[in-house]
Amino acid sequence: QVQLVESGGGLVQPGGSLRLSCAASGSISKIDVMGWYRQAPGKQRELVATMTSGGSTNYADSVKGRFTISRENAKNTANLQMNSLKPEDTAVYYCNAFNWGSAPAWGQGTQVTVSS
Prior knowledge:
Layout: E1 2-7, E2 10-12, E3 18-26, E4 33-39, E5 46-52, E6 57-59, E7 67-72, E8 77-82, E9 91-98, E10 105-106, E11 110-114
Parallel strand pairs: 2-11
Antiparallel strand pairs: 1-3, 3-8, 4-5, 4-9, 5-6, 7-8, 9-10, 9-11
């Protein structure tokens, strides 16, 4: 079973930057995909970015060019660098990890608030 712990959320002004980190622990031999999702109040959880162990990435259109996902496979960590933040990026951000054919693991979430 994989446990995920996120860190790095907080309050930032529009145009600012934040870096989220996710650390996986537990009985892990490999993690095929790690990613970030977010959920704003009153909205469904949505994909932000994912990255496979081979380095392939997928981004939501709304964050392309502003957010960058990275991974360290040997450490089972994933990061999300968020630049040029907008008020509409305000949400709880969740780390996600899974192997193909298995149920995903989720972190507890970290709040990101973009406001002046």
